[in-house]
Amino acid sequence: MKISSFIFLFFMLAATAFAGGTPSTPEAEAAARNSSRLYVQNVEDRAEIREAAEEDEDYLDYPEEEEEEEGIADPLEPVNRVFFYFNDRLYFWAPVARGYAAVVPEGARISVRNFFNNITSPVRFVNCILQFKPSSAANELLRFGINSTAGILGLFDVARDEFGIKMQEEDLGQTLGVWGAGPGFYINWPVLGPSSLRDSIGYIGDSFLDPVNYVTPLVDRYSIVAGDRINRTSLRLGEYEEIKKDAIDPYAAFRDIYYQYRKSRINR
Q1: Which of 161, 196, 228 is closest to 23 using CA atoms?
Q2: Tell me: the pLDDT tens digits for 159-200?
Q3: For residue 170, which of 62, 127, 196, 251 is within the disulfide window of CB 3.0 to 4.6 Å?
Q4: Does the N-terminal peptide bond of residue 211 adopt cis geometry, omega within 30 degrees of 0?
Q5: Is the torsion defined by CA of 60, 65, 71, 76 positive or negative?
Q6: Residue 124 and residue 173: Cα distance in Å, rounded?
């Protein structure tokens, strides 16, 4: 029975391979979508420039040195591509999130997301403190108080909807980046998806502040995590397919989108 439970949980987690390891907000999801569109547009623009250069002999007489594009180191690319393909197949073979979205109303799924965002407030609060952002830390503490009471244990984001107090998206990976730590190198984890050496270390550190990680027994904890991931994925269905469809190299596209998004969160 225990073996069956773990197999079931594995496939539930697999369905959310691209949901990400940290809580997300509508603003963050919009930023990620914008990054993907900019990436695809940039690729198309470069292709048009190359075609124009080939047709214009005068242009070729005065070549300009191309600037090296900034990106994240990827020494594990062969292994990362294998895991990317593995996650890609699991995403389409185990469409748990689609079935979940078909039977659970969107309003209920948003409330579930709000609940998990609320209980992970300690992660964001501590990282605001570590980044010397007292006003952000105060906002996060205030949000927790309002949503835990008026928002009925966080099911409703009253702090944002009624008072305009937005969630502070901070995690240890960003904190390390603020203090000068580079991303290291790119890692595409099986099931969990895109990350970096710095963000993987940060994810482990943040896990000690996540109340869900203290739930016992272990099978209950994994069930809660899987449920949260499936719920979040159900609210973003179609985004992965859209990025993959427009990208010349989907693996490189997701790697660059991840890097640019994390960089923007650190530099804001």
Answers
A1: 228
A2: 999 999 999 999 999 999 999 999 999 999 998 999 999 999
A3: 127
A4: no
A5: positive
A6: 11
Q: Which residue has the tokens 């309002």?
A: 146
What is the DSSP secondary-structure string of the chain? Answer: -HHHHHHHHHHHHHTTTTS-SS---HHHHHHHHHHHHHHHHHHHHHHHHHHHHHH-HHHHHS--PPPPPP--B-TTHHHHHHHHHHHHHHHHH--HHHHHHHHS-HHHHHHHHHHHHHHTHHHHHHHHHHTT-HHHHHHHHHHHHHHHHTTTTTTS-HHHHHH--------HHHHHHHTT----BEEEETTTEEEEHHHHHHHHHHHTT-GGGG-SSHHHHHHHHHHHHHHHHHTSTTHHHHHHHH-SSHHHHHHHHHHHHHHHHHH-
Distance CA 257, CA 263 (A): 10
Radius of gyration of the chain (CA): 21
Structure-model confidence comparison of residues 129 and 5, the more confident one: 129
Q: How far apart are the first and last CA of the chain?
A: 48
Distance, CA of 222 to CA of 9 (rounded, Å):
7
Spell out the residues 6+ positions from residue 242 whose beta carbon is closer than 8 angstroms to its own. Answer: 36
Cα–Cα distance for residue pair 110/117, rounded to 1 Å? 10
Q: Which of 9, 64, 51, 36 is nearest to 236 (CA)?
A: 36
Nearest 5°: phi and psi at 247? -90, 140
